């Protein structure tokens, strides 16, 4: 029997591991583009009077190591907790899926709703590409897209479940997914576009940064889904009986 | 082989956890998650609990790579 408290604690623990995995990926694939973007920013900034340096609150060395690790792990713990609660609600309520398969499915849904859908409209931006004056508007639109993404994947499950008795599992899932894609596509078409990336900013650098950002999200969600599923299945195994133990020589 | 045959058969759905049991843990987990996400993703952006820029600068690279808006 699954237990909500155990699942929540397991989710937050798996979140720590997911955060560390995300840090490793982000460090090797994301820090290069961030460094290049900061170099671009500094090359195009108004030069300070000779002999003066911009005061750094936190050094680049700290930002790219312990700062990035802290952010990834804290993010992982938060997502892991929310992920576990979602698995607790979904387990045993989505068809005949096992707990492990449910965890995998929730992770895919989480990646699509939380990361991919907002990314399609308001992708991650490297340093030097945003106008601070529009931060309020951009933050609001980004969170609106996040809500639309999460609502869309929840909508797929709810609609597919209600259509399933009439259409069968496959057809109900396809119909619900197409419906959600139309809703998300309409939102993407109607919401205002934001592009503040300077003309002279390297498109290759922008592409590398955004790919690294999406990859960091993919690593986070894959770790959550796979490790949580593994640990949950292992916890459901009955304790090995004496007969199953290898006989000591 | 004993351990393998003792696994739940594929497609064996677990018994659903009653919503009454999930609710308090869902609230608890959601509150913690929102506080954590706020500090990683939004503190010292358009709103700030602490003065200055130190929190923002410390998680700067993570904020960019995780897709949050930084500046």
From TrEMBL, chain A:
Keyword Transport in annotation: no
Keyword Thylakoid (UniProt): no
Entry keywords, A to Z: Membrane, Transmembrane, Transmembrane helix
Pfam families in the record: CbtA
Segments traversing the membrane: 7-29, 66-89, 101-120, 140-160, 172-191, 211-231
InterPro entries: CbtA_put
Record's protein name: Membrane protein
Organism: Dactylosporangium siamense
Lineage: Bacteria, Bacillati, Actinomycetota, Actinomycetes, Micromonosporales
From TrEMBL, chain B:
Organism superkingdom: Bacteria
Transmembrane domains' residue ranges: 22-40
Keyword entries, A-Z: Membrane, Transmembrane, Transmembrane helix
Name listed for the protein in its UniProt record: Cobalt transporter
Protein source organism: Dactylosporangium siamense
